[in-house]
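hey can u check if this looks right to u? its 145 residues, i copy pasted from the old doc so theres a chance i mangled smth
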Amino acid sequence: MIALAADHGGYALKEEVKQWLDSQKIAYKDFGTHSTDSVDYADMAVLACDAVVSGECEKALLFCGTGIGISMAANKVRGIRAACCSDYFSAKYTRLHNDANVLCMGGRVVGAGLAIELVDIFLHTEFEGGRHQRRIEKIAQLENR
């Protein structure tokens, strides 16, 4: 299951991605927001990220106006490796090399077509492991400083 969350700036893009997830029969849990009424991205990020950390959801897709604020908030949650991506290469390699478990995008930056491509590659790319595992472990150690 995939966790979804957005603030008001990412709401429309989240809704577009949900339609694609439905068409692909990919299960998700939508943590909101459910309108364009103003909400804080940090409040939305923590709901979805807690679901990833607890194991309720495998990964999360987060959306705000730029993707930056919600990614900063997400990365404060222990166990989350969130990447703000707006290109195919970054979305692919954040999975291959960084084992990112959260993809963040900006509703005012990325159009629906590109967002769906990024979600597709993010969800269907496996972590390579190997030499990259050592680096992921160092990131985890930073969380415990």
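The mean pLDDT is 97.
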